[in-house]
Design brief:
Blueprint: H1 2-19, H2 26-33, E1 38-43, H3 67-72, H4 77-80, E2 82-87, H5 98-114, E3 118-124, H6 130-140, E4 147-150, H7 163-175, E5 184-188, E6 191-194, E7 199-200, E8 209-210, E9 218-220, E10 225-227, E11 249-253, H8 261-268, E12 273-278, H9 289-297, E13 301-306, H10 327-337, H11 344-355
Parallel strand pairs: 1-2, 1-3, 3-4, 4-5, 11-12, 12-13
Antiparallel strand pairs: 5-6, 6-9, 7-8, 9-10
Helix pairs in contact: 1-2, 5-6, 6-10, 10-11
The chain binds aspartic acid (ASP).
Length: about 350
């Protein structure tokens, strides 16, 4: 039942766009003609691809479910989209970092380039660092076709496993014309979030993904994907073609009594940037100020964020701040910003544009 109404919905969306005189994507036309839109599922691992006792012995059993097995576990998914799958990796998300982000972004850009008929890409991913990968893809995948990142809080063989429904809905979202021009998104628990806004807020609950102060971009119901916000203004994607490795950027936490030791260690380890998880609206422990100034004198670009979990840190033309990005996302943006400029004011400008720090 559900897959039929989902397919009808795609047709309905295309028809509504036609009535409004809007440009119809070739994929939407094909949906009207009966062939569902093409979606590539790129699997990286995580709990969605794991089996075993959730709270007990899953250590020996993790990461055994392949991309094909994942799609086969979501009945009707083939009616929503014409699927292809790719096994990018099969690891927990703690094993995914800057190198994998770049490889993934390159792979997705290549897939969009080589396949003009591809409507969108779904990335399955462990939830722990999903928001970082999603934000990196948001900043580096060009064009207006959607990338939808999803995963599961419960393993594939758990009672009430959430992976199949998340994957099914992520494929619906990637196939939907209404998803175009929105960058990378995270789909979890029947809701779509903007990659730049979403964060994991709870260790175990299926509703763990939230976007503090923003809320979801769309509600994913059985019969429709209901976007409740206009498309955002998109900034040009960061170009990775000449980037061989991203610069080291560390995150330093601020807390009562914090001192200079970790800041000096980051500089000694070769950090080109430091993001500070400041107290409140970007305050510092009094023992950290001098070390951060020293880091700046060494050419390390310091970006001040907040450890509070929501709200803005206001910046200026010479003082880059995270805006309302959380510190792990400010780190992603700083790594990419440093591939364009090492100048503090230049980084401040990029942060003002991308992070919401701009007054
Ligand atoms: N440890 C897992 C991971 O991030 C957690 C998950 O997928 O939910 O890979």
């Amino acid at each position: 039942m559900r897959q039929h109404s989902a397919t009808r919905q795609l047709g309905g969306l295309a028809i509504r766009l036609l009535c409004c005189g809007a440009l119809i994507a070739p994929t939407a036309l094909r949906a009207q003609q009966g062939k569902p839109p093409e979606v590539l599922v790129m699997a990286t691992g995580g709990t969605i691809a794991s089996t075993g006792n959730y709270y007990g012995d899953r250590g020996g059993e993790v990461n055994k479910v392949s991309a094909e097995q994942l799609t086969a576990a979501a009945p009707g998914i083939d009616k929503v989209a014409t699927l292809s799958t790719e096994q990018f990796s099969n690891v927990a998300s703690g094993a995914i970092g800057p190198k994998q982000w770049m490889d993934l972004a390159r792979r997705i850009n290549a897939a969009f380039h080589d396949r003009p008929s591809l409507a969108g890409v779904v990335v399955t991913h462990g939830t722990d660092t999903m928001e970082e990968t999603a934000y990196f893809l948001d900043l580096t995948v060009s064009g207006d076709r959607p990338v939808v990142v999803t995963g599961a809080m419960r393993p594939a063989d758990a009672i009430g496993a959430d992976g199949p429904a998340n994957l099914f809905n992520a494929v619906r979202a990637a196939a939907a014309p209404a998803s175009r021009g929105r960058g990378a998104m995270v789909l979890m628990d029947d809701r779509l979030f903007a990659a730049r806004e979403v964060t994991k807020t709870n260790t175990t609950r299926v509703e763990t993904f939230q976007a503090p102060e923003h809320g979801p971009l769309a509600i994913v119901d059985h019969d429709t994907i209901y976007y409740n916000r206009a498309r955002p203004t998109r900034h040009p994607a960061f170009d990775l073609s000449n980037v061989t490795a991203l610069p080291r950027v560390d995150i330093i936490y601020s807390y009562g009594g914090a001192d200079s030791v970790l800041i000096d260690a980051a500089v000694a380890a070769g950090a080109k940037g430091i993001v500070v998880a400041g107290v409140g609206a970007g305050g510092l422990a009094s023992g950290q100020g001098a070390a951060l100034r020293r880091a700046g004198e060494h050419g390390v670009v310091v970006v001040i964020g907040s450890r509070t979990g929501s709200g803005r840190v206001a910046g200026s033309e010479t003082r880059p701040t995270a805006g309302d990005l959380n510190v792990q996302k400010a780190r992603v943006l700083l790594m990419l910003a440093l591939t364009r400029t090492q100048d503090r004011a230049g980084v401040a400008k990029i942060f003002a544009e991308y992070s919401g720090a701009e007054p």
